[in-house]
Amino acid sequence: MRNFEFYNPVNIVFGQGQIKKLNKLVPANTKIMLAYGGGSIFKNGVYEQVKSALTGYDILEFGGIEPNPHYETLMKAAEIVKNEKIGFILAVGGGSVLDGVKFIAAAALWEEGDPWMFLVDRSIVVTKAVPLGSVLTLPATGSEMNSTAVVTRVSTQEKFAFASYAVMPKFSILDPTVVFSLPEKQVANGVVDAFVHVIEQYLTYPVNSPIQDRFAESILVTLAEEGPKVLANLADYDAAANFMWAATMALNGLIGTGVPQDWATHQIGHELTAFHNIDHARTLAIVLPGIMKVKRENKREKLLQYGERVWGITAGTEDTRIDATIEKTVAFFESFGIPTKLSAYNIGADFIPVVCNRFAERGTKGIGERGDLTVEQIGEVLTLQL
Ligand code: NZQ
Ligand code: ZN
Q1: Which of 5, 91, 209, 311 gets the highest tally of CB atoms within 10 A of its CB?
Q2: Is the domain defined by 11-177 classed in CATH 3.40.50.1970?
Q3: Is CATH 1.20.1090.10 what the domain over 184-384 is classified as, yes or no?
Q4: Binning pLDDT at 50, 70 and 90, where does residue 166 land?
């Protein structure tokens, strides 16, 4: 196992009826921005619960944060935070609202020019942000318990992430009943996104880290068992609760401690969203099978371990088992109604050089856990998924 530091101060408040605790979690002596997305919170009763818990608070509302939140919209909110001297931002929504709020909180206090720079240049460290908290309405991204935010700039069709301890939520309320109102498509997306988060931190190469491996495998098995139960019955509270906690645990830093991490699937996937506005999780379901095939040798030992411990694949030669493991992963994604081929999203071969050029223009030598997935191989990954 490699050396590591693990720091996660987010206060998780989990369970049914917990939204009413907001008045113990949000500071009362400052002006609050309540930020949300396209309005789902008005339909499922979450908005009323939040407002009633915060009766008497000085609240300014900012709605309209898009899925894959737009830099252009978030900059407007950051301006309001500055002008109105907002002292705390409450995000009520899915990963997009949470990420959007993290960016708003950092951008509002950024004094070195255009905040876009800390998204483009990962070496820039953001140290200041307006404090924030969240009421999560969609289990998927793990944003509720991590330091990352992903922002899309519509004008240039770019999508980048930044990470900073300064934007970790002070608290996140996880009430599994929010799952009851989710469209089936968002449940499917949530299961697949969380599943691939684990894969990005697990399916690399062994470094003798049995704790991390078995934590990761337990999350994968839980998602594989509970995801279909949630889809079969959105009102199954226990399944919703297990799904929600699994998604949070998938990307709160714990399973990634001291182990190599990949993230190539996410990096390539972000380009599919930036150019074609495909849902984040769907981009991952397209790219991951291609990565497993192209990096089959690099990932051989972990592919065998994953196949055996998560899917029970033990029969046959190593190569047969790896083939079966990749097929099982594809079948799992497709069982949620998520296609894994570009053609299903009306994307053809002409798009592949566009993605490769983008990585080449950024000077990418290689990505993935060994930094050896070249631009040419990114093209191979996408070609396999046509
Ligand atoms: O906008 P509203 O009206 O709220 O509707 C949303 C949105 O249309 C709806 N929704 C959310 N909760 C609902 C609900 N509808 C009914 N009932 C509810 N309880 O769902 C739609 C999608 O929401 P969104 O927040 O976009 O989805 P998700 O949570 O999957 O977030 C995706 C974003 O997170 C980023 C992605 O790149 C993408 O931009 N990610 C963030 C990460 C992080 N911070 O660590 C890691 C991830 O890998 C990911 O990249
Ligand atoms: Zn993701």
Answers
A1: 91
A2: yes
A3: yes
A4: very high
Shortest-distance atom of ligand 1 to CA 139: 29
> In the chain, where are the structural domains located?
11-177, 184-384
Cα 204 from Cα 319, distance rounded (Å): 17
pTM here?
Answer: 0.98
Choice from 8, 40, 42, 263 to test ligand 1 binding pocket (greatest atom count within 8 A of CB): 40
Q: 102 with 129: CB under 8 angstroms? A: yes
Cβ-based burial of 255 (10 A; exposed 0-12, middle 13-18, buried ≥19): buried
Proportion of the chain in helix, strand, coil states, percent, rounded to 5? 55, 10, 35
Q: How confident is the model over 184-205, as a mean pLDDT?
A: 98
| 113: Cβ contacts below 8 Å, ≥ 6 apart | none
Closest C-alpha residue for ligand 1 atom 22: 67
**Tell me: the pLDDT tens digits for 352-374?**
999 999 999 999 999 999 999 99
The per-residue pLDDT for 140 is 98
pLDDT for the residue 229: 98
Do 11-177 and 184-384 have matching folds? no
Contacts of 176 (CB under 8 A, 6+ apart): 15, 16, 237, 240, 241, 243, 244
